[in-house]
Amino acid sequence: MKKLLLFLLVALLFGACQKDELSTGQFRFVKPSHFPEPTYTFDINPVTKEGFELGKRIFGDPMLSRDNSVACNNCHVKAVAFADPQHALSLGVNERQGIRNAPGIANMAFMKEFMWDGGVYHLDFAPPNAIENPLEMDEKMANVVWKLNRNSTYPAQFRAAFPEMGDTITSPFVLLALSQYQTMLVSATSKYDYYKLGKGELSANEMEGLQLFKQKCAVCHSGELFTNQEYRNNGLDTEFADEGRARITESAADLGKFKVPSLRNVELTDPYMHDGRFNTLEEVLDHYAAGVKQSATLATELRQGDFLGIPLTASEKKLIVDFLKTLTDHEFIQDERF
Amino acid sequence: MKKFLFLSTLLFGVLFFSACKDEEETKDPGTLEVNFDNIAVINNVQQQLSLVTPGSTNYAYTNALGQKFNINLLRYYISAIELDGPNGEHYHDHMEATASGSKGYYLVDESIPASQLILLEDIPAGEYNKITFTVGVDSSGIVNGAAGGSLDPATCHMFWNWNSGYIAVKYEGQSDVSNGGVSGAETVTGDNPHGMAYHIGGWKDIPGGVFVYNNKRLSFTFDTVVKVESKEAPELHMVFDVIKMFGSHHNIDFTGNHNVHKPADGVEVAHNLEHAFDYDHIHQ
Question: Which distant-in-sequence residues (6+ apart) come within 8 Å of B18 by Cβ?
Fold first, then answer.
């Protein structure tokens, strides 16, 4: 009897540990065991409960915009893995239309560069792009800092989160708080993750879809982040209204290239592509199967002899979509911390 | 007598030697004030710059192509300063880029006289005859994330969001030959018919990479040595000549692209920085 009790106790403990490995419920950054090392500089800006909660408050505060109308979470909505569920192109103050689709911002702690063109090297420097863009929040960082300092509760919250800060809030601490919040948005508890860690199973169709995905998609959407973090022209256009990566590298060889997006939660993050032109995963796969257009910078992965794109039958497309839906992380979008 | 002479010589020698040694040991680290003087050299005469209010059609300066221009704004970063001496003395300025503040990154602004004086502290006592510094902010100011002080992106007015990094040199003004249409400037509006903006940036120094790197690491040797120790307060005067910025390696044509906001467009002005900066003199 004693032995049985002990066994049960150990089993319980082990079960608890296993659960912990995937979802911690804590206010510190934990790298999922199957993920690569994070790129974020946690040694300089470690996540604390106070810093995280401050970042979360700022992320949801429309005072970041010029007329106090737009918050970060207008276009980065938790229910759809922090993407924009409504608009192909971002919508800013005075209903101004931006030039690109707001991507989901899960797993930012693992990314080498940010934005569709990779123009931002460190996560701390991502938010000012939205805050100061006239088509998005149309505000100045200096004015955000001024508003925060005048607020009745923010200054004390900043001092609690950053004891090294003086009496006055300055912009780097605003950015550190936003990064603490964003780096905690780790999506690693999808059906696929449980399968990957040997704690769950995929259906026969999903397994078949995974095999097809590995053969046909994973050359770019590689690894556990489902992106090689490189830039590709995936054959959307022959002329480029948006020069993409070439805007940053200033090289014609990068015209029309955009960052290969992570596919985690892809079922939720429609519409797709840098300009949100496709509404469904089926449309995306139809593009790769039969819509890829030739141009000088087209990805070599999408040239197979005379064929442009990825050969896919109707049933293969369906199986791949079945697999992609296993990347939907319901625990992530329901996590009460976020 | 010989013995006495020998002994006294020995004694004197020991005393003398230890005195010298003592004297060297008592020299404490000192300071050097580095003065960045922004000038225009006209007919071989250095003239102090005078800024004009935006929109002014007073043109005090002429580039090598004979095009008249003026200046509303002139600002640049000096960072990672090092000093070297003929006897192996070496000093490098302390560098730090954290949210609480930054050290070793100096933002020199023509409109703020105090910004043109950089006080280097805790320099090992000795003689120095060479200064080396970076014009701009290299990866050390970027890769660790948001920083404060002179690097605060909200207040420095030297930060590119879209291609995140610091502008090395920012000039704004106008020329009667420019056809205006400037965008993204601090002091010059798009409807200014003669406005100009030269924002020189590009910090990604990646071997084999495609990025344009416009920061410059410059060294200048002095015509004399500067003695540094706690009892001295020497000053080093460097100059920055706007005429050479627009005409030395390359003659910058103000009828061409005078709305410079990306690294590739700033390469020629950046190259000219090698001549625009120069050693001038030392006050011991």
Answer: none
